[in-house]
TrEMBL record:
Residues 16-95 form the Winged helix DNA-binding domain. It comes from Ohtaekwangia koreensis. Keywords: DNA-binding. This is Winged helix DNA-binding domain-containing protein. The keyword DNA-binding applies. GO terms for molecular function: DNA binding.
Length: 99
């Protein structure tokens, strides 16, 4: 029997990355400051996890200016959406196997 833990996505095993993806999968997009506040993390901590997700092409980033202030918005990519679903399916398989 195959170990369901093998199907977990290493990138999404970190709690903050999983939270970021959870927020993005249920919203059309989210701004950096709102995400930081919602997850209660520091700028640096959020930025490092965002970079990891961006490196995997799980999210896309758009930068603009609002009232002359920089505004960064994140969206989940199709690749990210698929990876997130696959990770949740693997978690579900782990739970079912324990019953």
């Amino acid at each position: 029997m195959k170990n369901p833990f093998d199907n977990l996505d290493k990138v999404l095993e970190h709690r903050i990355r999983l939270q970021i993806m959870s927020v993005l999968v249920t919203n059309d997009g989210f701004e950096f400051s709102a995400l930081k506040e919602m997850l209660n993390v520091t700028d640096g901590n959020l930025a490092s996890h965002i970079k990891a997700l961006e490196r995997e092409k799980y999210i896309s980033i758009s930068k603009s200016f609002v009232d002359r202030k920089p505004n960064t918005k994140y969206k989940i990519s199709e690749r990210g959406r698929n990876a997130f679903k696959k990770h949740l399916d693997a978690l579900e398989a782990v739970v079912k196997q324990q019953k």
